[in-house]
Amino acid sequence: MPARGKRSRGRAALPAGSRMRQTERTRATRRKLLDAAKSIFAKDGFEAARLEDIAAGAGYTRGAFYANFKSKEDIFFALFEEWVRERIQSLTDALRRYSNPNEKLVALRTHYAELAKDRRLVLISMEFKLFALRHPEAHARLRSRHRRIRASFGELFSEVMVAIGKDIPIAYPAASACLGAVSQGLLLEHLLDPKTLSDGDVRNVLGLYFDSIFSGCARAD
Prior knowledge:
The chain is mainly alpha-helical. Helix content is 79%, strand content 0%. It starts with a helix and ends in an 8-residue tail after the last helix.
């Protein structure tokens, strides 16, 4: 018994600096794996991407991959949720810059007009959706996350519209889903034929589509 207590005190006495360095190394490894996965998924496609290539792209082995993620789907969801957190934070910050409700709506419109900017992650998301439709377990996970995401954006929509004193003709989560779907479709067409559908065209159409949902409300000049 005394010996066990002595060992326990030894573990607890691990220097704080060592623990911090270990935590930083773990975070750095995870970050490199996420960045490599984003590049590999965009280059090879989700289904064709190999764990070995993701690990090698980050400078690690399969063992390092499995120490941080359970599977290819798992690292995709980590990327997806990171992207969503950044989008929600970006939109929240944009809305918090204004106190006037109409200015908040213009900021919301501008955000959605720029929705297709992160091309790699949008394309990866589209490809994974097709994968998820063919695989029930992945489908259930993606659907669950999408519902939470749509609800989060819906709350931001509601906050702006309540301040304005107006409403929209569809539920707020449905509006978020529609804006995302149109954005992805336009991006795909732009990448296929940028001469016919330019970056500017994509932004303009997204703005017009936003206006069609938030009809009768303030809009950008």
